[in-house]
Structure formats: structure tokens, C-alpha cells
Amino acid sequence: MSDATVSSTNLSLAPSSKGATIRPDEAAHFGALAADWWDPQGSSAMLHRLNPVRLRYIREAIDMHWGGDIRSVTPLAGRTVLDVGCGAGLLCEPLARMGGTVTGVDAAPENTIAAAHHAEGASLDIRYIAGEIGAQNIGTFDLVTSMEVIEHVADKRNFLRELKDRLAPGGLMVLSTPNRTAASRLLLVEGAEAVGMIPKGTHHWQDFITPDELRGVLADIGMEMGEPTGIAFNPVKGLHLSGNLALNYIATARMV
Fold first, then answer.
1. What does the pLDDT look like over 142-151, one tens digit per residue?
2. H or E segment at 164?
3. Do 58 and 145 contact (CB within 8 A), yes or no?
4. Which of the two residues, 3 and 240, has the higher pLDDT score?
5. How many Cα atoms are found within 13 Å in the side-chain-facing hemisphere of 230?
6. 231: left (phi over 0), alpha (psi -120 to 50) or beta
7. By the 8 A CB rule, do 92 and 115 touch?
8. How distant, in Å, are the alpha carbons of 58, 74, 91 from that of 81?
9. Which of 105, 131, 164, 246 is most deeply packed, by most CB within 10 A?
10. What whole-number distance in Å separates Cα of residue 171 and Cα of residue 62?
């Protein structure tokens, strides 16, 4: 896939040489959803519900990592941000509103085009790049995020190494992903996809990674993972941060 700038396997945990992490069929799947991405009632409705939960965690992680003013509405002012697997910019835009200088990278050009158009309409200056993260000569960033992406890549170790390579000294990484449990298989794959809450074919349960596996891979590449926080669901609270990691989890990582 060629790179285009417009101004997301099997569980691969074994060491591998630097190379592509993108699985073409995954990129095509999400690229086909690009036109619908910003519709809160459309195919990405679940991401619209998930996004505020992730943002709450990210905001708290930012404040704890850099010791900023918790009352500030722009805690990322003066900081650079990279969101990998950015889709159509659902996370990039609020990070830009927090004051960050934001770059989004996605495997599907359809997504980055949709993201750029939406950002322009919102008067937000966000750089979007389509292609393989390993092919991008874009420097390093204070904050690197990748939300619900690692379960879709061909080589998890290589992908995480590429993220690390884009993290500036003293920077912060935030990752979220489904856990590989019976609950996630039942609710995310056999449940949510079956009833249309998530597009069919979005998830392959065998590709999910557990917190212990993720911690181990990060340690192997010289990073330390923080204690993960669960993203759980119940009919009263909806999606919310929780101590229950069975469905989905989010965690920080720092260079050792």
C-alpha cells in the first residue's frame, strides 16, 4: 500500500525482523466503513460510545504523567501527539482540542481522507497520513496512542516496536484493546457482531491479546506497562472504566 499524506493475524508474539505490520484485509475492512465513521448511529456507533471512556482515562494519564493543572482544558498545549490506527479521527480531534499538535496515521487511505475532511469542517489543524507506520519518517512525539488497533495487526511485537520508536524521551504511550477471554468472545464476537452493534468481521477473537501477554511484549522491547484498567459494560452505567478486565482494557506504557 502506498503512503499518502492528506494535511489498524494470528497472535504474533515471537521476535521478528522489522517489516510490515498491516494486514491488508483488515485495512480494507475498516476503509470500507470510512464514509460512515462519524455517524454516531452508524457502523462505528460502539466507538462513539467508547470514545468518552477512553478520553477520560487518557486525560487522567496525561495529568499524572506530566503533573499538569487538572483544571486546564488544554493539558496537551505545547506537546506533540501521534494516534496510530486513527480511523477517521474520532480520537485525534478531542486530543487536538486538548491543545496537542496531532498527527494521525491509518492503514486505510479512505479513513485519512474522511478524517482530514472532518477536521477541516471543525477548523482543526490535524495532519493525517495513510500507510504503514514503519514507513513514516515523522520524528517522535510526547504522547503516542493506539486504540483498539493491536488486535488487528499482523505482527504485534513489530507494531509495538514501531510505536516505541516514535515516542520521545520521557513520553507517554496509551494502548487499549479487547482481552482474550470467554466474556470477550461471547459479547464482542458472538454477541455484538451477531446483532449488528459492531460490523461483522471486525474482530477475530484468536488475535486478541491478554494484559500479561501485552506486558511481556512491551518488556521485551524495553517498555514498562502500567497497571491496566478495564473498560466494562453494564445496562446501568453503559461502558465505563472498571477493575474488571474481562472485556476490554486500557493501559499506559513508558520507556524503561
1. 999 999 999 9
2. helix 156-165
3. yes
4. 240
5. 14
6. beta
7. yes
8. 12, 13, 11
9. 105
10. 10
Q: Which residues of 178-213 are buried (b: 16+ CB within 10 A; e: fewer)?
A: bbbbebbbebbbeebbeeeebbeebbebebbbbbee
Residue 194 has pLDDT above 90, yes or no: no
- The grid cell for 25 is 484485509
SS3 104: strand
Question: pLDDT at position 190, please?
Answer: 73
Which amino acid, residue 194?
A: A
List the grid coordinates of 118: 472532518
User: What's the CA gap between 224 and 45, in Å, rounded?
Assistant: 32
pLDDT above 80 for 108: yes
Distance in angstroms (rounded) separating the CA atoms of residues 241 and 24: 32
Report the alpha-carbon distance of residue 141 to residue 62 in Å, rounded.
14
Contact predicate 233/202, CB 8 Å: no
- Torsion (CA) 239, 163, 167, 82 in degrees, nearest 10: -60
3-state SS record for 6-58: CCCCCCCCCCCCCCCCCCHHHHHHHHCCHHHCCCCCCCCHHHHHHHHHHHHHH
Please name which of 10, 28, 42 lies closest in space to residue 154, comparing C-alpha atoms.
10
Domains of the chain: 4-178+207-255 (3.40.50.150)
Q: How far apart are CA 67 and CA 154, in angstroms?
A: 36
